[in-house]
Design brief:
By secondary structure, this protein is α+β, with helices and mostly antiparallel strands. The protein is 33% helix and 23% strand. The protein is globular, with a radius of gyration of 25 Å.
């Protein structure tokens, strides 16, 4: 029996090219400040550069515009409900003003009976998923994520390879995936619930791919498949660049597993904060410029995880934690997840730096020593070359990745940041995972 291959998720605003703006609305607009309220005609546009944002451009011949103090920002709105789109340049009278500016936040709609939300995702790396078709073309681009009562679809673009090649050449931003969010049972949900789920998705994807990734241009649909909500807020997205991805493009199941575990903790405000902050530490630590700051940031993330795991759980007193050296707390955290704290043999420069006249230091010991030399400079403390710092950076990121995944109970495989083999499909199973069941 043939299996029907689905088409990708469609949205009201189709994906554009690299760094190409997307027109969201053209027609009547309301404008107001503390000194004036007037009607205008204009456009609202999603722009990518220099950072993702919403811009508006308006023209108005309303006499009330003369009351506007141009030193004040305007609040822009779309009057009424279903508004027919018109040419933004139309109008018999010459406009009194013509203005263009950034629109900080905007969402609209009745939000009644919302059953699904469609959205875009920019600058997300490729994962080979289930098959999709579009006309006579098909490709492996669908990823399914399930957790905390939500079902999410992520569909890569048919031209995803070409888009990524352009991103590598030009940099900046482009939509790489279109997604859909809905309750696993198809129930209606509120705007606040949708925003919460989209925040969860953004946090998970950001951690998995080592860069800020966020759903954008969300549209809520009711049971009759009519748009009842639009969210045009611009969340933080990293410009395209080389970053380490925990997820290998052949391992869709690992991304699904990470989402499932993130979702399982999301209702606990303390764990939500922990995952959010750990993700931010990891993303900032993934930028090696300067390398000393990146390595030190990864250690700060480890200390965050160590305190929560050791002290908040009750296995170590806050007093004991405070009296310990930083490397002792890091080693205790790694031991919780069976993570080897010795320095891998492939990190030759760091191994050499850790060989002191009296002892060979562990990974946490040399990381703490190098960071202390930066944070508390002294002429008596040793200096380390760039190669040693590069090794320290790689090891600290590995510890941070594994400790975060250990905390949520992930059992899959990752791309190891210190593995010299970088080819597609080269993954390493996390050290605490149960051995695979043999057939």
């Amino acid at each position: 029996m043939d299996v029907e291959i689905p088409e990708p998720i469609r949205t009201k605003h189709p994906p554009a090219g690299v760094n190409e703006s997307i027109k969201l609305y053209s027609g009547n607009l309301s404008a107001s400040s503390s000194t004036a309220s007037f009607l205008a005609v204009g456009e609202i546009t999603w722009c990518w550069l220099p950072t993702p944002r919403i811009d508006y451009e308006i023209a108005s011949s309303d006499p009330e515009v003369l009351q506007w103090d141009m030193a004040e920002e305007l609040a822009i709105g779309i009057p009424g409900g279903d508004i027919p789109e018109i040419d933004a340049g139309s109008g018999e009278k010459s406009p009194i003003i013509h203005a263009r500016a950034r629109l900080p936040e905007m969402s609209r709609g009745s939000k009644q009976d919302m059953r699904r939300v469609a959205f875009h995702v920019a600058n997300m790396p490729m994962t080979m998923g289930d098959s999709l078709r579009d006309g006579g073309s098909w490709w492996r681009g669908r990823t399914m994520l399930v957790g905390n009562g939500w079902s999410i679809i992520l569909d890569s673009r048919r031209d995803s390879k070409g888009i990524r090649d352009q991103l590598k050449e030009q940099g900046g931003f482009a939509i790489t995936h279109t997604g859909q969010l809905q309750r696993a049972g198809g129930e209606a949900f509120a705007e606040e619930e949708a925003n919460d789920a989209l925040e969860l998705l953004g946090c998970c994807l950001s951690f998995a791919f080592g860069r800020h990734i966020a759903p954008s241009l969300a549209e809520g649909y009711d049971s009759a498949d009519q748009v009842v909500w639009q969210d045009w807020r611009a969340r933080r997205i990293s410009p395209w660049g080389t970053r380490h991805s925990i997820i290998d493009e052949t391992r869709q199941s690992d991304l699904s597993d990470i989402f499932l575990h993130f979702a399982g903790f999301w209702e606990d405000y303390l764990m939500r904060d922990l995952l959010t902050h750990a993700t931010h530490y990891y993303i900032e630590a993934s930028d090696p410029n300067p390398i000393q700051l990146a390595a030190s940031t990864a250690q700060a993330g480890l200390e965050l995880l160590a305190y929560e795991k050791l002290v908040a759980s009750g296995s170590m007193s806050s007093n004991r934690y405070g009296k310990n050296h930083a490397h002792q707390n890091m080693s205790a955290l790694l031991a919780e997840y069976s993570i080897d704290d010795s320095i891998p043999a492939t990190l030759a420069s760091l191994t050499q730096a850790a060989n002191t006249p009296t002892a060979s230091l562990s990974g946490p010991q040399i990381l703490a020593r190098m960071r202390n030399g930066i944070m508390h400079p002294s002429r008596e403390k040793p200096r380390y070359d760039v190669e040693a710092w590069l090794d320290a950076w790689s090891l600290a990121r590995k510890y941070l990745i594994l400790s975060t995944l250990g905390r949520i109970g992930f059992q899959g495989s990752i791309r190891d940041p210190i593995d010299e083999e970088k080819h597609v499909g080269k993954v390493t199973r996390v050290p605490w995972a149960a051995p695979p069941v043999k057939g």
